[in-house]
Input
Amino acid sequence: MLQRRYILFCCLCIVISIEICNSFTFDAYHTQNIGKIHSHNNPSPPTSFVHHYQPTIQPRASYTTIQLLNSSPITKDTDNDISNAQEEDTSTVLSDLHPSTIAAISNGLYIRSQSNPKMPLRYINNGSMEEWEVTLTAGKIAQEAAEEYLARHKLNPKENEAEEELLQVMAGRVVAVLVRLDELEDELLKRCSNNSDDISEEQCISLGIPIKELNAYQSDTKTAEIIDSTCLFDTTIRDNRSKSLLAMFLHDIEGPGLRKNNVKIPCMDVDFLEEDVLFGSDVDLEEVMESASDTTADTLQDDTLREDDDKHQTTRPSLHPITIDAIEEAFRLRSQNSTTSPLRLINDSMEWFEVQYSVVKFADRFMEKYTKNKSTTPHDWTEDELQTIGGRIVGVLMRLDDLEWEWNHRVTTSSLVNEVESTVWKTTFGLHPDDIEQNCILTLDTALSEEEDFARVRAERMLGLFLLNVEGPFVEEAMPGGSHPDFIQDELQLKLMAPKAAKE
Output
């Protein structure tokens, strides 16, 4: 499923370090459900977190996970039918990911309290460790939780997409919370401190905050040792704190972007926290969204009124060249097949979160290098423009294998294959001829690392395919500069890249 999986991992798993959370926002890519892309008569593309897909990208009429979570409760007849009761219980258990997610986060707090150097969950900036080590630990905890959940409920994610999504969402949330524990905990203490006059010690405990820790925070004393020593032995504090941290993540980080773009994933509501200290002062979410909608409408109206004035202002530079530069550079990095900075799955022991981490680190470093180099930055980018560029870099690289397969498939199954000589495929389509694409990665990597024109054209095609099929249909109005790939002049190729109509 070309876009659905992308949504899940960008919304959840991509938040795998505090750097990542602060660098770019991905709300623009929290788009609606896109249909699964699957080919019945053609060779399968490479396996990845977006899985197999076909050359058509279409809206999906129904999605099993959403059906599972939004279906009406199963009612038992007067005879108390046993099978219906069992089905209801199973549906209820599978549709509530929060207990298992909270348990995994609680386990993470316990592991952190042990101060095991082989399982770090607190980054120490003294040169003794790298940030990816925290990510690795979080990934291991999430993987263990997902495997336990799978075994306990006897799931079959390979055959059932709804069950696969449940596991992805749960694991993604665990990773997202654990890699930003310091940030979330600081915010938790801040909110409770601001309400300290109205909050009792019992309420503090219910939120997972020892009163000693709150007092230390208010006196600007370090709190890490206090919470670690407490979590090492106090299961109640550990579990309650996990609930609070997950609630804050769902309410403040994951939820707003998803709801704004009308995206639904399992268990989005915070229905497990009784205390209103964390969110008691918040405006109702629907009112916020309605207000945001009104503001957007007003803004669009104002923009229309200013249209004539804008025509006389300097046109903003295109965002595409720098994005293409990044993708081209990523091809060269990927060709090294480095296990420390992987941009693809290199061996069976590698996990996808390692690739995800490398992708976002690459984007972060590329943007930092570009914006600091005044010779390559002749103008000042706005914050929205920088976030859009960074988001697009990540969006393409996270699904690079799949975009490459898709473009190769569309070209090789079209009339262009007989109209263009194979000797110019590299500089025309950005594809390697002679069936190299799917059969010899080493040859492809070598060519991309050595032939700049080939890498450039390929980067343009990957971005073009992404803009037309993923970003453009849903978020064009919200993106600075629009989502049209105006860097591709070949009308036939643009037509080939366009989203295919859904088959009836």
Observations:
- The chain has a mean pLDDT of 74.
- Residues 235-260 form the longest helix (26 residues).
